[in-house]
Amino acid sequence: MNWTRVLSISCLLLASGFKIRTVDGKNSGCGLRPLSRTGRIVNGEEAALGAWPWQVLVRGTTLFGLFTKQTCGGVLLNERYVITAAHCQPRLLGSLSVVLGEWDLLGDLEPLSSVKRNVKRVVVHPHFVFWRPGNDVALLELDRPVKFALHILPICLPDTDEDFAGQVGSVTGWGATSFGGSYARKLNEVRLPILRNDECQSWYRQVWPFKKIAPEYICAGFKSGGKDACAGDSGGPLSVRRADGRWVLVGIISHGIKCAYPNLPGIYMRVSHYKPWILEVINNK
Which single residue of 3, 19, 94, 249 has CA 20 to 30 Å from 32? Predict the structure, then answer.
């Protein structure tokens, strides 16, 4: 057993119990990365333990709890709510649970630091339908509040008119390392440029001319491909660090065509577009 890692995790637990005041959906202590250093994700790199404290693992249970599997990623918004992709909602006779503070899915130390919660309620965006890619957003209400710690903290929401085109965002997840490939064991991260929607549309036209980049989408990736989110990363965050050092949630990983292919950047749900709906749900239980 790696006792150095055990000690570091023990320190996390001793430092737990942050009190972050929530007013009108805004967390006064949101977007902090106290354990960061100065994803799977295609051609990303392994993230440090606790580096992305708002990253959530979403698990789906089917047939009355007989089978449980890794379903999606998610993002912690406050002590009661996680945001994810709507297509991650449970199937017939199924349910969802979340794991916070996770890092190594097969590690024997994770039970010391991770926190599990059942999902009490799934609130899917009212205009989402499975056979269309739009409005792919859902909120998961947890059965009990989460106690914040150094490795479990909420992210900040963007302003409703905030534009992130031209900035570089970070994407994290445990999804596939290549199109059709195996999933990652440890949380991975990758940095991707955020595109203007018209630029993203022009790239797609060269390969997939019938794809429409709607205003509620936001794209991130390289024209040459090579780096991207992939299957299993859905619902996870595209985030940007503001000048004040806080991280803000720009997008929710939603869909794309294959993974990391040229002219086919990943498509995310634009969180600023959905902010009014998010606040309406979490402030009116």
Answer: 3
